[in-house]
Amino acid sequence: MPLRNLILLLLGIAALIAAPLGQGNYVIYVLCSWLIFSIAAMGLNLTLGYAGQVSLAQAAFMGIGAYTSALLTMAGWHWILAAPAAMALCFVIGLLLGYPALRVQHHFLAFVTLAFNTLVFLVLRNEEWLTGGSLGLVGIMRPSFLGFDTMPQIHFYYFTLVVFLIVAALFWGLVRSPWGRAFRALRENPIRANSLGVDIRRMTLLAFAIGSSLGGLAGALAAPLVQFIDPPAFSLVHSLKILLMVVVGGSGYFFGPILGAGLVIVMPEFLRFTEGYYLMIYAATVLVLMIFCPTGLIGLGKRIAGRFKGQRVRADLKQGAQL
Amino acid sequence: MAEFLQITLSGLATGSIYALAAIGFTLLWQASQTINFAQGEFVMLPAFFVLIGMHVLGLPLFVAMLFALLLSLILLGAMFKKLVIEPMLPHGTLPIVMATIALGILMKESVKEFYSAEAQPFPALVSDRTVDIFGASVSFQDIANLAISLLVVVALQFFLNGTRTGRCMQATAQNPGVAEILGVNIKRMVLYTFLINAALATVASFLISPIYLAKFSNGEPIGLVAFIAAIVGGFNQIRGALVGGLLIGVVDNLAASYVSAQYRAAVPLLLLIVIILVRPQGIMGKAEGRTV
């Protein structure tokens, strides 16, 4: 990694550490949910931006993760065990859901996950013996690690930040591993990837399942943050919201979903003065962005930067780039 | 038995309205690979055009309906194609999906803010008397809905198969490149498709609003059902969307009465998943070539 990028990265992490200092509980809460949704959006980015499949069930996986970890911690498990269990469950459900859907190409995963999200919502609402029905689960404890109690809001923020950084580092490694390269090959040209020996179906399925388990992890973090979960928090609208984060930020870019999540979470706070018009302004913004720049904000930034710098081209491709 | 018949018939009536929305959805997909996530809102909105025509402009019902149809053709047909879909077509499906989702939210919130958040009564086109068929009491409204929807579908089918323009539209949907070489004005044909979709949504809106009342949030369930109906029936067939719509209407009604009211909404979704597993091209659909 070039020195300049390393310095930028360290500055970024320092900013994340300093961000909550001296802030009120509510601001820290917004920062926490930004980090949590970034994790969910990163998972979806793997499915969408790297493997090229649309999933509309990320909120459902967050729900499964949140309920699983909440029920386990309320039964006396420690979070450090409950969260991986939630992730594993999401991974398995992702495999089961994705396997048949990926038999057929086109946008069938989108359709199946759309139906799945609504089904999960109905189960969460109707199975009162397990999930508390529409009243939800109350009194979820925040974990403590070797005496570090995450009950104070700022402690919880640092706990979330550590998890976020670990996930981001693993993700960074993953998309640069042979698996990550195979994912990208699939998105760019599935036929060619297949002819080079990439098992399309297995790789896509894997990307979807890993993406789903990251959704589960985000849910396992969201439950102790709010300490209360109910079904509407994991409905289809929220899946669309997470999808929006990925696309608005820039799908297929590492920092895209993080940027997108920030925008989607923080924008309501800035637009609060507009009251009822907030959603309209928001929707209109997305519409305009999609019409003028379908590659998202990072794509827009690159385009503007490219205009100033001129396209940088690999030496051996120079001739082709001039065509 | 009488009860079963009654439930089935009213299911068919609602299902035929779903079918109209589903057919529009299918047509758009065929003509321009547009998955319109705002289809439910397209059905929700024209009812409010009628209400605006009646209550704000003081028009009589039928004039207001013509006004609504005209407005829908312009806004939901031509403008939707020109301003939203056309600039995004070169960038693939995903931006269109996102944009139509955003458009749906925009339409929903606009109605909520500028008209009303309350459900509005909508004038019925026929009297709400009921008639006895083999012991089942069926409302005139249901019969009229079924008749009007089927009439619209038959007329559409005739237009697509029996007229020159309709055949040109089919050619455009099947293979735009070849159609253009053969002298079809494909841009115009795609525009016709968008206009037909807007008209279908408007008719569906007129038929369904007296039953469910006109409300800003109606779009979501209608859109979801239209979506499921289109896939269950077969994404590349108009007949498929019709069958899918009717099937979902009946299954939904039967499930609500005989299975469980709580899981009513789950039954069409399970049907969707089963169909995708067993017959991914849909009940009536033809299998399409796979990419790999």
Would you mind describing this structure in some detail?
The complex is a heterodimer of chains A (323) and B (292). Chain A is built from 15 helices and four strands. Chain A is mainly alpha-helical and 323 residues long. Chain A has two domains: 25-281, ABC transporter involved in vitamin B12 uptake, BtuC (Orthogonal Bundle), CATH 1.10.3470; 293-323, no CATH class. In chain A, the strands form two sheets. In chain A, strands 1-4 form a two-stranded antiparallel ribbon. Chain A has a two-stranded antiparallel sheet with strand order 2-3. Chain B has one domain (2-216). Helices cover 74% and strands 3% of the residues of chain B. Chain B is built from eleven helices and two strands. In chain B, strands 1-2 form a two-stranded antiparallel sheet. In chain B, a hairpin with a 2-residue loop joins strand 1 and strand 2. In chain B, helix 1 packs antiparallel against helix 10 (238-259), helix 6 crosses helix 8 and helix 9 (219-233) packs across helix 10 (238-259). Chain B is globular and about 60 Å long. Chain A binds chain B through residues 48, 54, 100-101, 103-108, 110-112, 114-116, 118-119, 122, 125-126, 190-191, 194, 200, 240, 243-244, 247-248, 251, 276-277, 279-280, 282-284, 286-287, 290-292, 294-295, and chain B through 35, 83-84, 87-88, 91-99, 101-103, 105-106, 109-110, 112-113, 224, 227-228, 231, 262-263, 265-266, 269-270, 272-273, 276-277, 280, 288, 290-292.
Would you list the SSEs of chain A in sequence order as H and E?
HHHHHHEEEHHHHEHHHHH
Report on the biggest sheet of chain B: 2 strands, antiparallel
Q: Can you give the helix content of chain B as a percent range?
A: over 70%
Shape of chain A: globular
Beta-strand share of residues of chain B? under 5%
- Termini separation of chain B comes to 49 Å
CATH topology of the largest domain in chain A: ABC transporter involved in vitamin B12 uptake, BtuC
Name the CATH class of the largest domain in chain A: Mainly Alpha
Main location (chain A): membrane
Protein name (chain A): Branched-chain amino acid ABC transporter
Membrane topology (chain A): Multi-pass membrane protein
GO molecular function (chain A): branched-chain amino acid transmembrane transporter activity
